[in-house]
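$ run holo --ligand "heme C" --emit tokens
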Amino acid sequence: MKKLYAMFLLLGLLFSTSSSWADRALVERGHYIFDAAGCGSCHAGVKPLAGGRPIETPFGTFYSPNITPDKKYGIGAWSEEDFVRALRHGRKPNNQHLFPAFPYTSFTGMTRADMAALYAYLMTQPAYPVKNRPHDLRPLFRSRAMVGQWKIANFRQGSFKPDRSKSKEWNRGAYLANALGHCGECHTPRGVFGGMNRSRLMAGNRKGPGDIPVPNITPDKNTGTGLWKLHDLFNFFDRGVKPDGSSVSGRMAEVLGSSSMRLTAADKRAIAVYLKSLLPIRNDVSTEYNPFTGSGH
Ligand code: HEC
Ligand code: HEC
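-- output --
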């Protein structure tokens, strides 16, 4: 009897440690997705992930919300399904539309498994009872219902679809750059209503966040990164230095430090391979802004 009891105890112990290993692996994977997607920078605040960081846009100033697991002020009462709906469809648990200042326009491409890992990671973070600060938007742009209209023209929801004619590495790079790293949110020109002009993907934005020009990163030799070799791009994501030895400042320095530089070497290389494969688009972001294409000339 005693022996049987000891055996049960042992089995129980084995079972519980193997399931907590699985949990730990999921959380670790979620941490990696969190870095690759750069969730931490916008949701920074007085306390990590408790939000409050201002995000200036032509429509007004958004203040990032609290995404800690606090049940009252954060997302601690959200189910995994609620979380998936926010990233995939840009909706709150009560079905209201979220503003695209939260780049779900890119995150919609994340796989379900990556979203689940990200959720598991966020739920292990410290909860802070910090109240959300209301956005300060221009009168015409305050309505969440209007975002529904905007989405019809500017939002295509759905998980990233691999292109089977391309290599595994290319597909990984495309996924990292578009669904996670949301590079296009800054590097793609936007039209009058603020939607990304996807036919000019990564061709640079004359008026990026804070009205600062964001460079063209398609391989155009004159106006883009056409003169950068594959290893130049890799070195940039790895150490933050450009081929001419200079470094970047501002938002891209933040992207590098909190996201790109934390990726594995294979993932940095995959992004470089993907960028090299893009169609070269001529667009000089230092020239005058055209509100209809969001491009320079
Ligand atoms: C460019 C800045 C930015 C980045 C990057 C960003 N967010 Fe947000 N996020 C926001 C803003 C702004 C809102 C508020 C949108 C609104 O009120 O409709 C928001 C809203 C949210 C919400 C809804 C919270 C609520 O209470 O309604 C969740 C969940 C969320 N973000 C999670 C994430 C995760 C996870 C990531 C990384 C994959 C991420 N965010 C990356 C800016 C950002
Ligand atoms: C929040 C906005 C933002 C995001 C997101 C962003 N970038 Fe940038 N990026 C910038 C800005 C601004 C610069 C110019 C910085 C400078 O020159 O000081 C830049 C510069 C660059 C450069 C150097 C180009 C040159 O000609 O000097 C490369 C390459 C680049 N980004 C790639 C990426 C990739 C890949 C991603 C996604 C993983 C990404 N960026 C995400 C804003 C952004």
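-- notes --
The domain at 24-139 is CATH 1.10.760 (Cytochrome Bc1 Complex; Chain D, domain 2).
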